[in-house]
Amino acid sequence: QVQLMESGGGSVQAGGSLKLSCVASVYIQSPCGMAWFREAPGKERELVAVMRDEDESTVIYGESVKGRFTISQDVAKNALYLQMNNLKTEDTAVYYCAGPKFRARNCASRTAYGVWGQGTQVTVSS
C-alpha cells in the first residue's frame, strides 16, 4: 500500500517561513505530479501547488500562494517539499501531500489524487 508521511508543520507569526516535507513509500507514475493541498475549517480542500499537470506543464500554483510558496521534489528520495515564505494568517490550514491516480486528469482538482498524507497543521498568527 502506498503511504505518504509529512513533517514540518508548526506555528509561526505572519511574515515568517516554514518548509514542509513529504516522503512517499513508492514512486507514483501518472500524468499528474505530486501535489500539496490545504484545508481550512469550514472550507473545501484546495490546491496549493502541483509539480506537473496533464499537459506536462511544470509547477502550477494556487492563485493565493503565487510568489510566496515554492514546490520542489527529490525523485530519488520519493520526497516532496513546500517552501512557504511571507506567511499570512489566511494560510492557516491543515496541509496535505497527495499522490495522483495512475490515469489522473484535471490535476488541479482533488479528485485526481488517490493517496493522501495524514496532514500537518500550519498556524499563522498576527
Key terms for this structure?
7-stranded mixed β-sheet, 126 residues, mainly beta, single chain, 4-stranded antiparallel β-sheet, 11 strands
What would you say this structure looks like, in words?
There is one protein chain. The model has no long low-confidence stretch (mean pLDDT 93). The protein has no helices and eleven strands. Strands 2, 4, 5, 6, 9, 10 and 11 form a seven-stranded mixed β-sheet that branches. It has a four-stranded antiparallel β-sheet with strand order 1-3-8-7, with no helix packed on it. The protein is globular, with a radius of gyration of 14 Å. The N and C termini lie far apart (40 Å). By secondary structure, the chain is mainly β.
> Could you say which structural class the secondary elements and strand pairing correspond to?
mainly beta
Order of helices and strands: EEEEEEEEEEE
Q: Report the portion of residues in β strands.
A: over 45%
For the record, give the distance between the C-alpha atoms at the N and C termini, rounded to a whole number: 40 Å
Structure, briefly:
This protein is mainly beta and 126 residues long.
Write the layout of secondary structure elements.
Blueprint: E1 4-7, E2 10-13, E3 18-24, E4 35-39, E5 46-52, E6 58-61, E7 69-74, E8 79-84, E9 93-100, E10 113-116, E11 120-125
Parallel strand pairs: 2-11
Antiparallel strand pairs: 1-3, 3-8, 4-5, 4-9, 5-6, 7-8, 9-10, 9-11
